[in-house]
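Risk mitigation, structural track. In case the binding assays with FE2/S2 (inorganic) cluster fail to produce interpretable data, a predicted complex structure has been prepared as a fallback.
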Amino acid sequence: MTQRMFICRCEDVTVAEVDHAIGIGLESVEEIKRYTGLGTGPCQGKECTVALVHLLLDRGRITASAVQPFTARPPAEPVTLAELASLAELTGPAELAAPAELASPAGEAPPSGATP
Amino acid sequence: MIGADSLLRAREPSALAGARRLTVFYDERPIPASDADTVTSALLGVGVVATGRSLKYRRPRGPYCLQGDCGTCLVRIDGVPNHRACTTPVRDGMRVERQNRVLAGGPDPTALVDRLFASNIDHHHFMVRPKLVNRMMQDVARNLAGLGTLPDLPAAAVRPMEHRPQVLVVGAGRSGLAATARLRAAGLEVECLDRFDARWSTPTAQAVRWETPVFGIYPAEGVIAAIGGTADDRTLHTFRPSHVLIATGARDVMVPVPNNDLPGVFAARGLLGLLTRTDTALNCPTIVVGAPAVAQPLAARLGASFVAVDDVQAILGGSRVEAIATSSGKREAGCVALAARPAPVSELARQAGAEVVWMDAGFAVARDELGRCGQGPWTLWACGEACGVTADVAADDGLRVADNILAAVRSRPDRGPR
Amino acid sequence: MSPRPTLGSRGVALPAACDVAIVGGGVMGLATAYHLSQVSRLRVVVLERSYLVSGASGRNGGGVRMQWGDEGNVRIMMESIEICRGLTQELGINLWFRQGGYLFVARTEAGEARLIRNAELHRAIGAPTRLMSAEEARELVPDLEVSGIRLAAFNAEDGVVFPWPFVWGYAGQAIRRGVVVRTHTAAIAAEPDGSGMRLRLSTGEHLRAQIVVNATGAWSHDLNRSLGIALPNRPHRHEILSTEPLKPFLNPLVVDLQSGLYFSQSTRGEVVAGITVPGGHDDGTVVDQRSSLRFLAHLGANLVALMPRLGALKVLRQWAGPYDVSPDGEAIVGPTPGIPALLQVCGFTGHGFMMAPAVGRILANYIAHQQRHPMLERWDPARFAGGATLRREDMIIG
Ligand SMILES: Cc1cc2nc3c(=O)[nH]c(=O)nc-3n(C[C@H](O)[C@H](O)[C@H](O)COP(=O)(O)OP(=O)(O)OC[C@H]3O[C@@H](n4cnc5c(N)ncnc54)[C@H](O)[C@@H]3O)c2cc1C
Ligand code: FES
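Fallback model:
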């Protein structure tokens, strides 16, 4: 067995591979995800994101105050196509609220200073 | 190999005769199991640790997190690929098959990949030229990629069900349960969901929809979706609440040490949870690896020994863990438990539009002093470990946020469920 | 080791002036930059607001086909696919281009007529499209539910690629040839500067260029508006998903003409599937990349109806990206009316990725050598001035 240290076991991404990506100039979580494939397997980043951030902090590539994880995309849990299909009649055609409607719903003040 | 050193045993040998009454089939060989078992605990009980192969280096892989997060325990169950073995309860007669093997029996020739490519495989620049070689490489890669094969049969239909509670609590851990109890006591109509069954949580009198994971929060559509029920009677729930409380807790994450992917390496908290739920005990020498403050208490609870992560040179083994190499020599182990600080679980909060902040153990949900973290078709709240609060005070945090939700509901009595 | 940026970075120094400034580091901008570096000695700078592959070029399905309804588009795609055949070696990066073909299925009389008409056109110009019965289609895709299918069309030269390395490959080679690729830097304003233009950047820097190329895809509307330019292309949200990876079982990309559903299997084994959800919200001016549950439901229902065995597959993730839609479904490429120093290369709806290899070359030859490819007339940004335009292409999916 070759000795390897993994950050992402789903896609077989090692610490050395992340260092290589850093070496060619990639520095953000989103970029390294795409270049190495980290976080794109069955766990969708649940297991590896934190270890990646620790590594990037350690390598001085990011700052703790600014770092963000990659976009959380549904589904967060396994769900099948047939299960989703059961909603087809219930939901009807897509009608998303306009982005503005979400930001400030009528009569409800947005939470103030939503950072601790 | 079945019959090779088993990693787990029943805690009460006398209970064995009574409890071990189910049979599951692993690659057609019968395996005894109890009704407390998950597929993973049953397999570990007969010494099966590796259940698949990794995608690139073709290394043997087995379960790690033991709580449905990491996705490397995937097996085919009753003709359907990619089931999480660690969270699937056994059923009598269940057919479990390993995936991603090139040949049905005997050694896997692709295991050589790991040795042949001792440095890293850079898949972007691997065998790019000449064209003919590149084309052959692509064909090989395509056949080695992928987990599992097509399902045997079309899937059964499921029922959709709509709910309009006043409050939806996502997660029935300490903080979620405490909040649910407080809100219900005040007369609110509350739905509380959890991805696991009751054995994973604190005992509670509260009604919880167990085994009903929320998979998507869609603020633009004002809907939250969860999938629940037993294997052959599934329901797709949609919720349109006025308040959503995210109480998704924290999870184990990966600790980078050499060969941290070997079958038999587990997340320490996950392992502890598995022993509790399935009423089993460790049956092999076990070493907990981590920072002392986190790992030592876990080692004590597991009855295992402890090695500081900085002392670990590598985990050693072939198809499973055999030992670890430390700065002071080699130590035998059948099982290595990696202990990181639990990381807040924030995916659903982020889907709902909440911000997160880095808090060293992970990304915690950012909230205001009342516990609010977003406003849309509902008011979004968060409590407990998901916000970076430690487990010992999570329940109190849940109560505090529940009181703030109550105050918000009472100040706007006209606003019922949408 | 200090970073050796081979894919563009925020740290790379910008010159004060260059010959061509390309705004937008998607596949269009970078393919153009790469070809410029090959056919000219022009000094080229690419500005990308975020990271490479952050736009539509990092969010698409990677479908590449010559089965179009209009001769010009078929020919462009024959050119593109010819380039793709050797592009992995040319760019030195694995693109995972796999020619498994595109299989179109028609369930209506109108759809059937379209496939027949296309097949005749394709035959006349040498594209190997073949009509086939539902039963033959099932031989290609064994688990297809063919009961409602009247006719199918298959072209074995069509295929799929993995989009990200495509973009990095163009960037990497362009950088090697002296192109400056600066990420995390947006062009926020532009003003005339002699015969060229002067760009103001989000970093506070300025860049002068003889020619500026607007390669910002669905964001081009924003950039144009800030310059007072009114072109009719608009962003449109398109959703897509991928499933857990399985061993190879599906060779072609399958398209249902009636529902607009398409699905293929990537080299990694994931089923990648998209569909346009009827009646989706779009206010038409801002790029909206949110995912919806309705998309999952609509896609699930259509996919399970067409291939029931896929019903038990789990969805791995869903996402959305912007199509850049023009009123006539044709791209917008060439000098901007009234501002000849500003070239547009946008309006590619859901097929800009596959056209980029050809378009990058065409645009580079136009910039460097004033060569006018026949399609440039059709793609002329000035064509909208006269009012209503003719929609010729009726094989736009999704
Ligand atoms: C879901 C989906 C599926 C698709 N499927 C296919 C398919 O199967 N086949 C196919 O051929 N096509 C497909 N397409 C279409 C294809 O992706 C696009 O046509 C193509 O990627 C457009 O490339 P681009 O470079 O023009 O745009 P983009 O890739 O969007 O690049 C534009 C870039 O400009 C940057 N930018 C914006 N404003 C500024 C500024 N002011 N300054 C600097 N930079 C700026 C953006 O960040 C972005 O990176 C699909 C699209 C989507 C969304
Ligand atoms: S998901 Fe089963 S062990 Fe991690």
